[in-house]
Amino acid sequence: MAQPEVLFLIITAIFASTYLIAYTAASNDYDESSQTSGSCSQEETATRCKPIESPCGCFMGPSGPAGATGAPGTVGPSGLPGVQGPQGLTGSIGPKGDPGLEGQVGLKGSTGESGTAGQNGVNGEKGEAGQDGANGARGLKGTKGLKGDSGEKGDEGDVGPGGHKGDSGTKGDKGDTGKGTKGDAGTPYVPPPLSMFTATLTSSLHVSSGYQTVAFNSVKMNAGNDYSATSGFFTCRIPGMYSFSVTVLSHPQYDLNIYLMRNEVQEARAYYNYMSDKSGYSTIGHSIVLDLEEGDEIYIRAHPTTYLYASGTGSNVFTGHLLYAAADMSVENEATEI
Fold it and tell me: Does some domain include residue 80?
C-alpha cells in the first residue's frame, strides 16, 4: 500500500473516533436531562442537535436512502503519529536453522592463573620381582633420574687431614661443679717387655781364612741382656718382631763381605770390592726386620779376606731392638678382625 493512502486512513480513523466520543457524551447528557426535566420545548426540538450546547440533545429521524457515491476527496494532511500499541505476545520458537559456516580461529587467549598444586598421592605397594630378561641392545643415554633413597651406612673411613684452626670462641659461663661417681679400679700397669742392644768393635779384624763370627766387644746398651759381647750372638728371649742393623768400615786394600745370620741361615749381606774403588776407606751397612721365635740367634759372619778397620769406637756398629712382642701382635690382630 502507498504511503499517502496509509496516512489518509489514519486521519479518517482519528476523526471518526473523535465524533464517536462526542456523540456518546451528548447522549449521556440527554439521558440525564430527560430524567431531570421530563421533556424539551418545541424550539429545542426543532433546532439542530447541538449535543454539547443543549442539555436535551436531539431526536434523530430514520435513516434516509443512501446517496450517490461522492467524488474522491483530496488527500488530507498527514495525521499525527498514533499512540504506540501494547507489546504483542511472545511468538513460539521457530524451527532450527541450518548450521552456519565455520568461523575463523579466534585470537589466542591470555594465560590463565596457575592452579594450586595437587596433593601427593599415596605410595603404591612394592610389586614382586620379575624374572630376569635377556640382555637387550645398548640403549641411548637416558636423562638423569630422580634421586634415589639413601643407601646403608658404609664402613667408617680413614681419618681425614686436620682442618685449619678455627677462631677462638667467646668464653662461656662457668658451669656447675659436677660430682662424678667413683670409677672401677683399673688394671695394674705392666711395662712393655724390652729387648735392645748396641755394640761396637774397638779393634780391627782381618779374616785371612775361613768364615768367622764378628764379636762386637764394646756394649753401649743391652736392655734385657740378650746380647753377648763375648760370642757376638743375640739370643731371642721374647718372641716378636725385631729390627737389626750393622755398619762397618772397610780398609782401602782389602775386600769387605759380611752376612747377617739367623741361626745358620743368611738373612742379609753387605759387600765391598776394593778393586772397584781405590780412593780410600768406605762405610757400608745393612738393616732388616725379622720375626723371631724364642731361642733364635742373630749374629754377624765375616767372609774370608774381609778386613774390618776400626778407627774409633763408632766405625763398626751392630744394633737390634724389639718392635712388637708376639703377645701384643696377637691382641692387635684380634682388634683388627673385630
Answer: no
